[in-house]
């Protein structure tokens, strides 16, 4: 495998690599939840998983949802007309654990508690 190096505007070389979008999503969530100090939860929606459909599909069955597709998966922008902001984002948790996949690709087990939190980060 050949390493590719590029020179940035300062003349410093850096390695260019391809990263799976799911890995980027997981790292982003870890940074948002774990490294930004104590987040403030502004709103919460909770339901029990049916074990049949994705987290996003179940949310859409219960609430009015606005979302955007991206290379990382679907990102929820609003739930029941409660919008994310520049500093607060909709994040979901399964059994109180931060999500490890995009909401449109993860099917939780039947009986799992799904919680969507509008989380303000400092």
Largest sheet: 4 strands, antiparallel
Which overall shape is indicated by the principal axes computed on the Cα atoms?
globular
Spatial order of the strands in the main sheet? 3-9-7-8
Question: Helix- and strand-based class?
Answer: alpha+beta
Q: Give the strand tally.
A: 9
Estimate the strand proportion: 35-45%
Task: Characterize the quaternary organization of these chains.
Answer: single chain
If helices are DSSP runs of H or I spanning 4 or more residues, what is the number of helices? 2
Q: Please trace the helix and strand order, writing H or E for each element.
A: EEHEHEEEEEE
Low-confidence stretches: 1-8, 12-17
Helical residue percent?
Answer: 10-25%
Supply Rg. 17 Å
- Rounded to the nearest angstrom, the distance between the terminal CA atoms is 41 Å
Q: Can you give the mean pLDDT?
A: 81
Question: How does this model look, in words?
Answer:
- The longest helix is centred in the N-terminal third of the chain and has 14 residues, at 21-34.
- β4 and β5 (73-79) form a beta hairpin.
- The chain is built from 2 helices and 9 strands, in the order ββαβαββββββ.
- 18% of the residues lie in helices and 39% in strands.
- With 122 residues, it is of the alpha+beta class.
Task: List its salient traits.
globular, alpha+beta, 18% helix, three-stranded antiparallel sheet, 122 residues, four-stranded antiparallel sheet
In short:
Helix content is 18%, strand content 39%. The protein contains 2 helices and 9 strands, in the order ββαβαββββββ. The radius of gyration is 17 Å and the shape is globular.
